[in-house]
Each structure stands twice: as structure tokens, then as C-alpha cells.
Amino acid sequence: MRTSAIIADKLSVLSDSVRLCKWLITLSCPPLDWAAWKHLSNLPTLLRVTIYNVNQVPSESPSDLNSEVRFPSDLDNITFGPFLNLTALSVEAHTAAYVTKLMQHSEFPSLTNLELFIVILPWTDAERLFHAMSKCKASQTLEIIRILSNHSEVQDLDNSWIAITQFCCCPELRTLELQFPCCCAHLDNYRLFEAMSSWPHLRSLSLKDENYHQATVTFRGLLATLHQCPHLEELRMLIDTVNIDVDPAVESLRHTSLQLLDVRSAEVLDTKAVARIILSIFPRVDNIYHSPLDSNHANMWHEVRNYLQHFRSFAVLDRQDAIVDGT
Predict the structure, then answer these.
(1) CA atoms lying within 13 Å on the CB side of residue 183
(2) 259-284 per-position pLDDT tens digit
């Protein structure tokens, strides 16, 4: 018997077993069939669901990658319940089709944590997924969204599609982590400001796109944007630190909550100026993270960190002198 057929049989038995459970609170298992999901959607006790990918063996053919579970393509005859009290959903899958269908056919009114690990996530699939998310009640309750895919491919992207703005309908966001091809495409100061203006409670933002190498968000754009998120503590994204558009000597704006700054693979030329800017506008940032560590710019960012430490030490001494002079 083929490996995929064995897996399908086992998952069918699993789905049947799940339908016998009436008081589930937490469930962690491989993918289920839609009948099992219908049963789960009506359980008021269910709080957390984790779906992990069982396809850990070499595929017999490319089509086997999607054949672990054979779902009915037509869900017109299946009516899902609301997943009334489900607060956390984590799904690992080969494509986004599985979780997209879930989002399209239920409401998830209590969902606060959504984590998706998708092997292949082209922007067209991401667009369908995000649209489905925006139409269900979970968009009003989600606090944590993590969507990750390590599969990198060149794609023809719609110039009007910007990943981060698809989540403007999620006003309760605290954490947003996007890591998939084209998640940073067409991102600029204006689009970042537009999105983050919708997230007053945001504490952590992480954007990573292996296909995105040209930084388009500047210090001025970043500073203006972060004032829309006064509680932001962690920021990980590619920043333009070459075209400096902020003068720390005259800049009055500060963001005093940010503590962690990861500039990804950003280039830097004037290390001293960049260190002064970071110290001035982000006074609580103690260190700057940069990747990869063996890149051509790693030594330059090491200089930035040294300058930052140097300037911070002098600032402490100046405050101590001021205290002594005032006594």
C-alpha cells in the first residue's frame, strides 16, 4: 500500500475518534476531515486546536504532497458551528487551502491567537486567506497573528497588493509576524503608516521577506508610524539606513517604548549618524540586531553598536554631572 494511502486511512480513523469526544478542551493532531471539524465547531468546551503536518516522509510523486487527507471539495452540505470559545488555532500545512476553507465557513468569535506554518504560500493564496480572515468575526478579536512560509519563489505580484494592509481590520492586534515571499512587496512609509494606524495596542511587529532586498521605509517614516503604536516594544523589519532623512539635533519626536530593533539585512554607510539617530529617537533601544551575521554589512553594524554604547555612556555621565552641579 502506498504511504499516502496508509496516512489517509489513519487520519480517517482519527477523525472518527474525534467525533466521539464531547468535552474536548485542547486538541493537537494531524489534519481532520470536514465532518470532524463540524463536530469540533459545536463544542463549547474547545479552547485550543493545533493541526500539524504528518507528511514527514519522501513523497512518491509531487501530487502526494497534498494527498494526506482527501477532503470533499464541496462544503455546501456541511454547516459549521461558530467555534464559540476557541481562542487559539495553530495549523501546519502544505498549502493555505485547508485553513482558508475553515475561515470561510465559520466565525471564530473568540479567537485571539492564530499561527499558520505553510510550506508553499504564493501571494495569490495569501490574498484568499487574508480575505477570508477579514470576513469572519475573528478579525475583531485576534491579538496574535503569525504566518510563516520558508518556501521562496519568484512571483508576478499584483502592484496593488500589500500584505500588511490586509490586517487593518484587526484592531486588537498585539503581535504580527509575517514571513513569506512578497510579504514586504510595495511596502513604504505611507503603507506602513496606514496599517499601523489601525493597531494602537501593537507590541511586536516582525516582517521577513527573502525576496525583498530594497529598503523603502526610512527613519522619518518609521518614527511617524511608530507614534501610532505607542506600546510597540519589538520591531523586526528591513529599514533604509542609507538615505538618512532625520536630524537628531532638531528632531523632537521620540518613541520611548521600543526596546528591540532588528534591521534585517539593511545596509549602512554613516555608522556614527545612524547610531546618533537611534539613540535620539529610540532611547530605550540598547542593541541593534542585523542578519546575516557574516554579510558584507555586519562589520558596519558592529560599528553602529559600538557608537551606540559610546554615546549612551557619555549621556549617563552628562546626567551624573548635571546632578552634581545641581547639588
Answers:
(1) 26
(2) 999 999 899 999 999 999 999 999 99
